[in-house]
Design brief:
The protein has 2 domains: 103 residues, NusG, N-terminal domain (Alpha-Beta Plaits); 48 residues, SH3 type barrels, CATH 2.30.30. Helices cover 18% and strands 40% of the residues. β9 and β10 form a beta hairpin. The longest helix is centred in the N-terminal third of the chain and has 15 residues. The chain is globular.
Amino acid sequence: MSEARWYVVHTYSGYENKVKANIEKTIENRNLQDQILEVSVPMQNVVEEKNGNKKQVQKKMFPAYVLINMVMNDDTWYVVRNTRGVTGFVGPGSKPVPLTDEEMDKMGLMIEEQSVSFKVGDNIVVTSGVWENTTGVVQSVSESRQIVTINVNMFGRETPVEIDFVDIEKV
């Protein structure tokens, strides 16, 4: 089996998140998790000023484009190409061209793989972000997405929350 690479898909403007959701739903329905690994709409934090108030908002880095980490074959090409809102892959003619590692580095999207020193059942503490100083028990670990899921107590109920690897440490 060939190696997964990053491809760029062109979408109708404003449909990026819908395309991402539709592709993820199709991956789940057709059991393609081992062939289409990640669908991403890269975002960046921007400070906007409205009526004299500064507010931090997230904007799409590449409007009308979605990045997909996948193994290119007839099935995956068909699934992505025939998703509502997709106009096509970026590349000459109908042949998709994967992004090089240099291109991924220039875009600032390359995620360095971190080795994890924790596993399901470990106690962790959140070191930054909204859930800072919250402790929890690891419910699941996703090394490909670089997140763990922990349960936190909200309004008297256990609620699962996804936390980035960089925001936690083992207790």
